[in-house]
C-alpha cells in the first residue's frame, strides 16, 4: 500500500538532516580532520566565552596559567563534546527509521481512512440498491401470490429469478471486488513485511555501524587525549628540565663565585695572621724581657723579705713565749674569776629569790593595807555622814531647845515686867517704863551673817558705782557698811573694771556675742562672772583676796613704776580724784593699811594685770589646795550665848528687886491681918447660919402631924428647952 | 592416572608408596562411609604403620623397580577435602550439604555443581551468582542481566517462569507446573515479561477451508473458549513482583496465523484487572499489542485507581480511543503515576483534552507518550495549555499526531514559561515553516529543554538548525549544573524513555 516514494524521500531527508544542521560525524566524511579542527575552534571559543561569563574577568596572568594547565582538559572537553555529538547524531540516525515508519504509518492510516470511508459509502450504496431490489422482489412475491395463472406465475418467477440472480451477481461482484481489495491488501501486507524487514535490516546495519563508529571515535578520542596528556607531560618535562638546568647553572656560577671569594678571603686572613704573628712575637719578646727584669727585682725583694721574715720570726717567737706565760696567768685568773662569778651568781640568785619573796610579801601587805584603807575610807565616810546627820540633828535640837528656853525666859521676863508694872502702878503708884534691851528682840540662836558670794558683791559694787555719781556723800556711809573695811568699793570697782578689760580671753566667745546687746553694767557683770568662774573665785573672801593681791602687788613693784605714775597722773585726772577720794575714805575708815597703799595704786598698768593674775592664781591655788579637803563646817561660837543668857537673867535690876523684897514683907504683914479678919468674918457667918438652921429645924418639928397624934406633943416637950 | 603414579612411586620408594596406598585406601574407606570426616586426615600414623605392614611384600616388589620419579610430591595427591567436595558435588541432588561447609569449600562446591540440578534443591539453598550465571548461560545464549536488576538468580527464575507461561496451553497443560514453582521462585521474581499467551488448543481441529473471512465469525462465536492463562494465582504467590509486561499474542505463528490467536478476551481482561488490583507491590504495568479497546482499558484502569505503588502504565500499540484516554486521565488524578504511555492508539482530540485537563493539576507525571495518535490541533492546544500550569512533566512525545501551526504557537509560549520540560518530540507532524519559526522563538527563551525532535514536520531547516544550537547550549548548561553540586537532572536520564521507545 505504501509506495516506495516516501521511503526515498525519507532517506533524502535523513541525509539532509545528517549533513546540514549538525555537521554530523557521519561515516562517509571527506576530510574529518578539517571538520574536527573547525569544531575545536568553535568549541574553544564557546568554552572561553562561557568561562568568561561564569567566572568573570580574571587577571591575565591567571588566565594564561589556566590555559597552560588546561591543555589536556581542553582536549578532554573537546573529545567529550565530540562524542556527545556523535552519540546524539547516531541515535538520531537510528531513530530516523522509526520516525520514517511513523510517518509512513500515519500516511497509511490517512489513506486507509479515506479508502475505508469510500468502501463504506460504496457498501452503503450497494446495500441501498440491493435493498431496493430486494424490496422490489419481495413486493413481487406478494404480487405472485395473487397470480392464478401459471404462465404469469412462471413468468413472474422467471423474472424474479433473473432479479435475484442480478442481485446475487451484484453481491458477488461486490464480494469479488472486496476480495480483490483484500488480495491487494495482502500483497501490500507482504510488501510491508518485506519493507519492515528491510527497515529492520537497515536499523541493524546502522546500529552496528554506529557502534563501530562510536567505538572507533572513542578510541580515537582516547588516543587524542592520551596524546594531549603526553604532549603536556613532555612539555612539562622539558620546561622543568630547562628550569632545572637553569637553576643548576645558576647554582654552579654562585658556587664558583663563593669559592673565589673564599680563596681571596683565605689569603687575606693568612696575611693578617702573619702580620699578627710577627707583631705578637715582638710583643712577646718585649714582655719577656720586662718580666725577667721584674723577676730579678722580685727576687731581690724576696731575699729582703726573707731576712725580715727571719727577724720577725724570732721576734714573734719571743712574743709567743711571753704570751704563753701570760696566757697561763690569765687562765689562772680566769678560773678564779669564774669561781667568783659563780659565787656571785649564787648570791644573786638568793637575793633574787629573796627579793621576789619580799615583793610578794609586800604586795600582799599592800593589798591588805589597801583593803584596810578602803574599809576605813568607807567607815570614815559613813562616820562623816553620821556626823553630818548628827550635826544637823544637834543643830535642830539646839535651835529648838534654844527657842524653848528663850520663850520660857521671855515669858518669865514678860511676867516679871508685868509684875513690875503692876507693882509700880498699883502698889507704888509710880509710872512704869518698859526697859529696852537688844537681847529682848533676839529670837533664835545668835548666828553670824551668811557670807555673800562674789557675784553678789560684784553686783553691789557696780550698783554702788552707778549711784556714786549722783549721790556720793549720802550713800557712801551706808553702803560701805557692807563692805570689808580694808578696801574701798571704788578701788574695787576700778580694779574689777581693769580686770574685766584685760582678761577678756577668759571669757568664752559665745558669751561675748551674747553680751553685745546688753547694757554696760550688765555686760561687765556677766563678764566678771565668767572671769571669776574661770579663775576659780567663788566667795566674797576670794574676791577680797584678789583685790588685796592687786594692791599688794602694786606696793611691791611700786619703786620701779614711780616715774610712770607721775607721768600718768597728768593724763588721768579722774584717777587722781579717785585717789583723793580714796584717801578721804581711808581717813574716814581709819584703816592703816589703806593709807599705805594709795600712793602706788594707780601704778597698775594694764599690761601687768596678767602677771598679777597669774601670780594670784598660783597663790590662790596653794591655799585652796590645802583648804579644800578640810572644808570646815561652819562652827558656832558660843561665846555670846553665855553673855546672852546672862543678860537675860539680869533683866530686872537689883534695885527693883530690893524694892520688891521690901514690898513683899510689908504686904506679908498686911496679908496676915487681912487673913485674921477674914477668919473671923467666916466664923461669924457660920454661926449665924447654924442659928437659922436650927430655927428652921425646930419649926419643922413643930409643924409635923405626928406631933398631934402623939400623946405627948413635942411641943410641949420642947417648950421646955425653949423655955 | 593416580593408579600409575601410585605404582611408580611405590616401586621407587617403598615407604612413600605405602603412604600413597594407605592414603588411597583411607580415602576409599571414607568415601564408602560417606560421613563427613575431619578435613585434614593425619598422614603420619599410616606412615608408621606401613613399615610393618609392607615388610613382607618388599622383596617381591623390589624387582620391578623403575627409575625414581623426581617430580613426585605430596601435592599431587588430592587432598581429602577435595575428595569430599567432589563427593558432595556428586551427591548434591540427594544430600545437599552447603551451609555447613567453610566458605572456601562452599565456593568449590558451587563451582562444581551441575546447572542441571532440580530447582527444588537449589532454589532456596544456593544464592551464589556464579552458579546461577552458569545455569542461565547454559539455557539461554543471550542474557541481559542488567534488565533483571543485575541478579543472575533473578534472571534465571524470571525467564524460567516466563518460558513456562509462554508454553502454557490452557486446559491442556497442568497448572501445577507453574504453581509448583511458586514456592521456589516467589522470593526472587520481581518482574515478568510475557510476550506470548497461547490460546487453548481445540481438540477437534476443524478442517479449515482456508477462507480467512470465516475465521473472524468463528472467533466471535468461540470467544469464550479462547481465554488465556489466568495470572491470578501466580501473581498472588509472587510477593516481590514489581513489573508486569504482558503481550496477549502468539509469536512465530507463521502460516498458522489465525485472528483468534491474538484475542484479549473480556474474561482475560477481568481476571487481569483483579490480578493487578490485588498485587500491591506492582510498580510497572505494561500491556502492549493486545488489542485493548476502550472498554477493556476502562476495566483495567478502574482496577488500577488508587493503586498504592503503580508508577508506570504502558498501554501502547492498542486500540484505545477517547473513552479509554478519559479513563487514563482519571487515573492520573487518582494515583502516583509517573510514566504514561499511550503510543499508537486511537486517541483523538476529546481524549487528549481530558488528558490535558488531568495533566494541568497533576504533580507526579514525568513522562507522557502519545505517539501515533490523532489528537490533532485541538488536543495539542489543550495539552499546551495544561503545560503552562504543569510543573512536573519532563518528557512529552507527541509524534505523529497531525499537529500543525496553532499547536506550535501555543507550545512556543509554553517553552518560554515552562522550566521543567526537558524533552519534547513533535516529529511527524505538519508544523509548517511559520510554526517552526514560532517554536524557534519560544526555544530561544528556554534554558531547560534538552531534546526537541522536529524531524519530518515540515519545519524550515534553518529554524531546526537554530533550535538544535539552542538545545546544545541548554545541554551544556545542564551539564555544568550537574557538575556543580545541587542539581538533579542530567540529559542521559532524560534520554532514557526515548531510547526505550526506539
Automatic annotation (TrEMBL), chain A:
Keywords from the named record: Cell projection, Cilium, Coiled coil, Flagellum
Domain Dynein regulatory complex protein 1 C-terminal: 643-702
Record-annotated Dynein regulatory complex protein 1/2 N-terminal domain positions: 99-200
Gene Ontology CC: axonemal dynein complex; cytosol; extracellular region; sperm flagellum
Compositional bias (Acidic residues): 575-594
Coiled coil: 103-140, 168-210, 288-372, 677-704
BP GO annotations: axonemal dynein complex assembly; determination of left/right symmetry; heart development; mucociliary clearance; regulation of cilium movement; single fertilization; sperm flagellum assembly
Location(s), subcellular: Cytoplasm, Cytoskeleton, Flagellum axoneme
Region Disordered: start-end pairs: 1-34, 58-77, 561-601
Family statement drawn from the similarity comment of this UniProt entry: Belongs to the DRC1 family.
Function: Component of the nexin-dynein regulatory complex (N-DRC) a key regulator of ciliary/flagellar motility which maintains the alignment and integrity of the distal axoneme and regulates microtubule sliding in motile axonemes. Plays a critical role in the assembly of N-DRC and also stabilizes the assembly of multiple inner dynein arms and radial spokes. Coassembles with CCDC65/DRC2 to form a central scaffold needed for assembly of the N-DRC and its attachment to the outer doublet microtubules.
Subunit structure: Component of the nexin-dynein regulatory complex (N-DRC). Interacts with CCDC65/DRC2, DRC3, GAS8/DRC4 and TCTE1/DRC5.
Matches recorded under PANTHER family: DYNEIN REGULATORY COMPLEX PROTEIN 1 (PTHR21625:SF1), NYD-SP28 PROTEIN (PTHR21625)
Designated name of the protein: Dynein regulatory complex protein 1
Lineage: Eukaryota, Metazoa, Chordata, Craniata, Vertebrata
Name of the gene: DRC1
UniProtKB/TrEMBL annotation, chain B:
SMART domains: LRR_RI (SM00368)
GO cellular component: sperm flagellum
Pfam families reported for this sequence: LRR_6
An individual GO BP term: flagellated sperm motility
Lineage top rank: taxon: Eukaryota
Cell location: Cytoplasm, Cytoskeleton, Flagellum axoneme
Main subcellular location: cytoplasm
Residue ranges of the region described as Disordered: 1-58
Compositional bias of kind Polar residues: 1-36
Keywords of the record: Cell projection, Cilium, Cytoplasm, Cytoskeleton, Flagellum, Leucine-rich repeat, Repeat
InterPro entries for the chain: DRC5, Leu-rich_rpt, LRR_dom_sf
Role summary: Component of the nexin-dynein regulatory complex (N-DRC) a key regulator of ciliary/flagellar motility which maintains the alignment and integrity of the distal axoneme and regulates microtubule sliding in motile axonemes. May play a role in the assembly of N-DRC. May be required for sperm motility.
Quaternary structure, from the entry: Component of the nexin-dynein regulatory complex (N-DRC). Interacts with DRC1. Interacts with FBXL13/DRC6, DRC3 and DRC7.
Family: Belongs to the DRC5 family.
PANTHER family registered for this protein in UniProt: DYNEIN REGULATORY COMPLEX SUBUNIT 5, YNEIN REGULATORY COMPLEX SUBUNIT 5
Protein name: Dynein regulatory complex subunit 5
Origin species: Mustela putorius furo (European domestic ferret)
Amino acid at each position: 500500500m505504501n509506495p516506495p516514494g516516501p521511503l526515498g524521500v525519507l532517506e533524502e531527508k535523513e541525509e539532509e538532516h545528517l549533513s546540514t544542521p549538525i555537521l554530523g560525524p557521519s561515516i562517509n566524511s571527506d576530510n574529518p580532520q578539517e571538520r574536527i579542527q573547525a569544531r575545536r575552534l568553535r568549541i574553544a571559543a564557546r568554552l572561553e566565552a562561557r568561562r568568561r561569563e561564569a567566572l568573570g574577568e580574571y587577571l591575565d596572568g591567571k588566565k594564561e596559567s589556566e590555559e597552560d594547565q588546561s591543555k589536556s582538559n581542553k582536549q578532554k572537553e573537546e573529545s567529550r563534546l565530540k562524542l556527545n555529538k556523535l552519540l546524539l547524531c547516531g541515535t538520531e540516525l537510528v531513530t530516523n527509521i522509526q520516525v520514517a515508519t511513523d510517518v509512513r504509518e500515519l500516511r497509511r492510516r490517512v489513506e486507509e481512512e479515506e479508502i475505508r470511508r469510500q468502501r463504506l459509502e460504496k457498501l452503503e450504496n450497494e446495500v441501498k440498491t440491493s435493498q431496493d431490489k430486494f424490496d422490489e422482489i419481495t413486493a413481487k412475491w406478494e404480487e405472485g401470490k395473487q397470480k392464478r395463472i401459471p404462465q404469469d406465475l412462471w413468468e413472474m418467477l422467471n423474472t424474479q429469478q433473473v432479479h435475484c440472480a442480478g442481485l446475487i451477481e451484484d453481491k458477488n461482484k461486490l464480494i469479488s471486488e472486496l476480495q480483490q481489495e483484500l488480495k491487494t491488501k495482502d500483497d501490500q501486507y507482504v510488501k510491508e513485511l518485506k519493507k519492515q524487514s528491510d527497515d529492520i535490516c537497515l536499523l541493524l546495519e546502522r546500529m552496528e555501524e554506529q557502534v563501530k563508529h562510536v567505538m572507533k571515535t572513542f578510541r580515537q578520542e582516547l588516543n587524542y587525549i592520551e596524546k594531549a596528556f603526553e604532549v603536556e607531560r613532555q612539555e612539562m618535562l622539558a620546561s622543568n628540565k630547562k628550569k632545572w638546568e637553569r637553576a643548576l647553572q645558576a647554582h654552579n656560577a654562585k658556587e664558583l663565585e663563593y669559592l673565589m671569594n673564599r680563596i681571596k678571603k683565605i689569603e687575606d686572613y693568612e696575611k693578617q695572621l702573619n702580620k699578627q704573628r710577627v707583631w705578637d712575637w715582638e710583643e712577646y719578646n718585649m714582655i719577656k724581657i720586662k718580666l725577667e727584669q721584674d723577676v730579678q727585682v722580685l727576687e731581690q725583694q724576696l731575699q729582703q723579705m726573707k731576712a725580715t721574715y727571719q727577724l720577725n720570726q724570732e721576734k714573734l717567737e719571743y712574743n709567743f713565749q711571753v704570751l704563753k706565760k701570760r696566757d697561763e696567768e690569765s687562765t689562772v685568773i680566769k678560773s678564779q674569776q669564774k669561781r667568783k662569778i659563780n659565787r656571785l651568781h649564787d648570791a644573786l640568785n638568793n637575793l633574787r629569790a629573796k627579793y621576789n619573796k619580799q615583793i610578794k610579801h609586800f604586795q600582799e601587805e599592800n593589798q591588805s593595807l589597801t583593803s584596810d584603807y578602803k574599809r576605813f575610807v568607807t567607815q570614815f565616810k559613813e562616820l562623816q555622814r553620821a556626823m553630818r546627820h548628827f550635826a544637823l540633828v544637834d543643830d535642830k535640837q539646839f535651835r529648838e531647845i534654844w527657842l524653848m528656853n528663850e520663850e520660857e525666859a521671855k515669858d518669865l521676863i514678860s511676867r516679871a515686867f508685868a509684875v513690875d508694872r503692876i507693882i509700880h502702878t498699883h502698889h507704888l503708884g509710880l509710872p512704869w517704863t518698859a526697859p529696852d534691851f537688844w537681847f529682848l528682840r533676839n529670837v533664835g540662836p545668835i548666828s553670824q551673817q551668811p557670807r555673800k558670794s562674789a557675784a553678789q558683791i560684784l553686783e553691789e559694787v557696780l550698783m554702788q558705782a552707778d549711784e556714786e555719781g549722783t549721790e556720793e556723800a549720802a550713800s557712801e556711809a551706808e553702803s560701805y557698811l557692807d563692805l570689808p573695811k580694808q578696801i574701798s568699793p571704788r578701788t574695787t570697782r576700778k580694779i574689777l573694771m581693769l580686770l574685766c578689760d584685760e582678761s577678756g580671753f577668759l571669757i568664752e566667745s559665745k558669751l561675748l556675742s551674747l553680751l553685745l546687746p546688753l547694757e554696760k553694767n550688765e555686760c561687765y557683770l556677766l563678764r566678771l562672772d565668767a572671769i571669776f568662774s574661770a579663775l576659780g573665785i567663788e566667795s566674797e573672801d576670794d574676791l577680797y583676796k584678789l583685790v588685796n593681791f592687786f594692791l599688794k602687788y602694786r606696793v611691791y613693784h611700786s619703786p620701779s613704776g614711780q616715774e610712770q605714775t607721775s607721768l600718768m597722773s597728768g593724763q588721768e585726772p579722774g584717777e587722781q580724784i579717785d585717789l583723793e577720794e580714796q584717801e578721804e575714805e581711808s581717813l574716814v575708815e581709819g584703816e592703816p593699811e589703806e593709807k599705805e597703799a594709795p600712793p602706788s595704786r594707780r601704778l597698775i598698768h594694764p599690761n601687768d594685770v596678767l602677771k598679777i593674775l597669774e601670780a594670784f592664781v598660783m597663790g590662790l591655788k596653794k591655799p585652796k589646795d590645802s583648804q579644800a579637803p578640810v572644808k570646815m563646817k561652819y562652827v558656832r561660837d558660843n561665846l555670846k550665848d553665855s553673855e546672852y543668857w546672862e543678860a537675860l537673867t539680869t533683866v530686872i535690876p537689883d534695885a527693883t528687886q530690893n524694892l520688891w523684897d521690901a514690898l513683899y514683907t510689908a504686904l506679908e504683914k498686911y496679908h496676915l491681918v487681912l487673913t485674921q479678919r477674914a477668919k473671923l468674918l467666916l466664923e461669924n457667918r457660920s454661926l449665924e447660919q447654924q442659928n437659922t438652921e436650927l430655927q428652921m429645924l425646930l419649926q419643922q418639928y413643930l409643924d409635923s402631924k405626928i406631933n398631934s397624934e402623939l400623946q405627948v406633943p413635942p411641943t410641949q416637950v420642947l417648950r421646955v428647952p425653949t423655955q | 592416572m593416580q593408579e600409575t603414579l601410585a605404582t611408580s612411586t611405590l616401586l621407587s620408594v617403598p615407604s612413600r608408596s605405602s603412604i600413597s596406598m594407605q592414603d588411597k585406601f583411607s580415602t576409599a574407606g571414607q568415601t564408602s562411609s560417606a560421613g563427613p570426616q575431619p578435613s585434614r586426615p593425619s598422614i603420619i600414623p599410616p606412615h608408621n604403620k606401613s613399615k610393618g605392614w609392607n615388610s613382607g611384600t618388599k622383596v617381591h616388589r623390589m624387582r620391578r623397580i623403575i627409575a625414581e620419579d623426581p617430580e613426585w610430591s605430596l601435592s599431587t595427591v588430592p587432598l581429602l577435602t577435595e575428595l569430599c567436595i567432589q563427593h558432595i558435588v556428586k551427591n548434591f541432588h540427594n544430600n545437599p550439604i552447603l551451609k555447613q561447609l567453610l566458605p572456601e569449600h562452599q565456593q568449590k562446591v558451587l563451582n562444581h555443581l551441575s546447572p542441571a540440578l532440580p530447582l527444588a534443591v537449589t532454589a532456596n539453598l544456593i544464592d551464589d551468582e556464579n552458579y546461577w550465571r552458569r545455569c542461565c548461560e547454559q539455557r539461554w545464549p543471550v542474557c541481559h542481566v542488567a534488565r533483571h536488576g543485575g541478579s543472575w538468580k533473578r534472571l534465571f527464575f524470571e525467564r524460567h517462569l516466563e518460558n513456562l507461561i509462554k508454553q502454557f496451553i490452557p486446559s491442556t497443560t497442568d497448572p501445577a507446573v507453574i504453581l509448583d514453582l511458586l514456592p521456589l521462585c516467589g522470593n526472587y521474581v520481581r518482574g515478568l515479561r510475557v510476550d506470548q499467551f497461547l490460546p487453548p488448543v481445540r481438540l477437534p481441529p476443524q478442517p479449515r477451508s482456508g477462507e480467512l473471512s470465516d475465521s473472524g465469525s468463528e472467533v466471535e462465536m468461540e470467544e469464550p473458549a479462547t481465554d488465556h492463562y489466568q495470572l491470578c494465582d501466580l501473581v498472588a504467590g509472587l510477593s516481590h513482583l514489581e513489573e508486569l509486561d504482558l503481550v496477549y499474542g502468539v509469536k512465530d505463528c507463521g502460516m498458522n496465523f489465525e485472528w483468534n490467536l491474538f484475542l484479549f478476551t473480556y474474561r482475560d481482561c477481568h481476571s487481569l484487572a483483579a490480578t493487578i488490583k490485588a498485587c500491591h507491590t506492582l510498580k510497572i504495568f505494561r500491556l502492549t499489542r493486545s488489542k485493548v479497546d476502550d472498554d477493556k482499558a476502562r476495566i483495567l484502569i478502574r482496577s488500577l485507581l488508587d493503586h498504592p505503588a503503580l508508577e508506570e502504565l504502558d498501554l501502547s500499540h492498542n486500540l484505545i480511543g477517547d473513552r479509554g484516554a478519559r479513563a487514563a486521565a482519571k487515573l492520573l488524578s487518582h494515583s502516583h503515576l509517573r510514566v504514561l504511555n499511550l503510543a499508537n492508539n486511537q486517541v483523538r482530540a476529546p481524549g487528549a483534552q481530558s488528558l490535558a485537563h488531568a495533566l494541568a493539576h497533576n504533580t507526579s507525571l514525568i513522562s507522557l507518550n502519545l505517539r501515533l495518535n490523532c489528537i490533532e490541533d485541538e488536543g495539542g492546544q489543550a495539552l499546551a495549555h495544561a503545560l503552562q500550569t504543569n510543573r512536573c512533566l519532563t518528557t512529552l512525545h507527541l509524534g505523529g499526531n497531525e499537529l500543525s501551526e496553532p499547536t506550535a504557537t501555543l507550545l512556543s509560549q509554553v517553552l518560554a514559561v515552562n522550566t521543567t520540560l526537558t524533552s519534547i518530540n513533535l516529529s511527524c507532524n505538519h508544523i509548517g515553516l511559520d510554526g517552526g519559526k514560532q517554536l524557534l522563538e519560544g526555544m530561544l527563551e528556554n534554558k531547560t529543554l534538552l531534546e526537541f525532535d522536529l524531524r519530518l514536520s515540515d519545519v524550515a531547516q534553518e529554524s531546526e538548525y537554530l533550535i538544535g544550537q539552542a538545545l546544545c547550549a541548554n545541554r551544556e548548561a545542564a551539564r555544568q549544573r550537574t557538575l556543580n553540586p545541587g542539581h538533579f537532572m542530567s540529559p542521559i536520564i532524560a534520554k532514557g524513555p526515548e531510547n526505550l521507545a526506539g
